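Recap from last week: sequence in, structure out.
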Amino acid sequence: MSALFKNGWTAAAAIVALAAGACSAAAFPEPAQDAAKAGAKGQATAVFAGGCFWGVEAVFKHVKGVTRATSGYSGGAAKTANYEMVGSGSTGHAEAVEVVYDPSQITYGQLLRVFFSVAHDPTQLNRQGPDVGTQYRSAIFFASPEQQRVAQAYVEQLQAAKTFSKPIVTQVAALQAFYPAEAYHQDYLARHPESMYIVINDLPKLAQLRVQFPDLYSAR
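Predicted structure tokens:
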């Protein structure tokens, strides 16, 4: 994402890919297994990786029940948790987003549904759209046995239902640590809505969120 397009991608090719992803995510199933909604207001955390963190962060910031979404790095060591080193693809980190949410308003399974349907394409291995490398892999970093159970069950459910025409390659791994990214990466979409990278790759995700999940969408 340091350049507008990598490896020869064009604007037309990116738009075609986004359209294909939108079609594959139509009529997205609800999780058959999920954590129950909490009876009282509280705070829980989920960590997802789905390519460039700008768009993933923006999607979750517009989900009702989410109180904070932070771009960062997960999967590697603290000493390599910076943009320049992660960008080399050799640190083990993925660009990730820490989602803090109120489990009395939204469940972990509902967050997974958004993650798989509009936040990214879980069938792309070690890339996402124009961005290529293990740092752009699809991953769920679970913070508890319950999150692991719900995440693995949902992946199996989507595979069995043939929701996507290609296999899901999402990694489900234990969360070791999350490291916030540099300040200039936070709220990037909101601060740079005119960027062509954002216009082509990320604004369509917000549009899909609003259309597919009107009950979950927040205009904030």
